[in-house]
Amino acid sequence: MTSENEKPQKFGLTFKELSERPTVYRDNLMKGHSVMITGAGSGMGKAMAFLYARLGANVSICGRTEEKLKNVATELKDRCGKEIFWKVSNVRNPEEMESFLDEITDNFGKIDTVINNAGGQFVQDAIDFSRKGWLAVIDLNLNAPWWIMQESAKRWKEKKQEANIINIVANVERGMPQSAHCCAARAGVIYLSKTLATEWAPHKIRVNCIAPGTIETEGLEVYPEKTLERFHKANPMQKLGGVWDIAEAAIYLSSETGSFITGEVLTIDGGMSQWGVVWTAGIPDYFKMDGGD
Fold first, then answer.
1. pLDDT at position 186, please?
2. Is 50 exceeded by the pLDDT of residue 5?
3. I want to staple 63 with a disulfide (CB 3.0 to 4.6 A). Which of 41, 104, 172, 267 is the partner?
């Protein structure tokens, strides 16, 4: 078993916490359910993998880093006695993802839920974006989820199988200063999801989104201390959300509790959408009021 003492974790839940954290759901709620989660080597994806597996689902995960994926699989087996399927895959490569979907079907016979969780961006003022940088973020956060959704839907339609898709997006209603490329991509996924929810309803395919606010994950480690001091102030509850909040929301949407929900965005942000803006690179002087920071 991986020793967490060797790698202290400053943010997010440890493997031990993920394996023991109480859940509102009953045991084996997702038994027989097959879920595929992208970007599940850390953060929200890792938490979802743990909760689905603990509730009895057949879990398949992918990501870019073999060590992270292997650790998730090893810890789940050692701590919870759950075997999962994992593979290093680039979500921006449609052929790789098609192969991954094939292998999941070979292993578990079907896929019931696809969770597009992989994503990312770099922080920069929009006026300074390079064309290459813009395209990279759009490809990762918009094009990749689309190819995965389309390929999955084709398979479900052919088999006449009920299924659902959950896209992890972002809180875009008030824009995302210093992350305009990500905002554009996530907004695209939201309205793509609403459109597909209608088009694919005859095939009994549901499509929904989860829009997290500021969530405490390992990803916070890349931000400077000055920026971290303000993250929790971006919502009226003045606190960070947790990965377990997102994991339990995904279960809600993909289980029977969400069977009459499609085309929706489940926002989990502590009220940030009607309160504040996150300046990931620090507040520009122009927007500082009364000398505040």
1. 98
2. no
3. 41
User: Which pair of structure tokens corresponds to residue 42?
Assistant: 């850390």
CA-to-CA distance for 181 and 6, rounded, in angstroms? Answer: 37
Tokens standing for residue 291: 């000398």
Q: 3-class secondary structure for 40-90?
A: CCCHHHHHHHHHHHHCCCEEEEEECCHHHHHHHHHHHHHHHCCCCEEEECC
b/e sequence 244-256, b meaning 16+ C-beta within 10 Å? bbbbbbbbbbbbe
List, in order of start, the domains of the chain with CATH numbers: 26-287 (3.40.50.720)
Q: Other C-beta atoms within 10 Å of 61: how many?
A: 30
pLDDT over 50 (residue 2): no
Residue 143 DSSP label: I
Residue 19 has pLDDT above 60, yes or no: yes
Instruction: Check residue 110 and give its pLDDT.
Output: 98
And the tokens for 287? 């927007």
Is the CB of residue 262 less than 8 Å from the CB of residue 203? no
Three-class SS state of 98: helix
- Rounded mean pLDDT, 214-240: 79
Beta strand pairing status for 163-168 and 58-63? Answer: unpaired
Q: Strand pairing of 205-212 and 215-216?
A: unpaired
Residue 108 to residues 36, 56, 61, 155, 227: CA-CA distances in angstroms?
A: 11, 13, 13, 15, 43
pLDDT classification of 26: cutoffs 50, 70, 90: very high
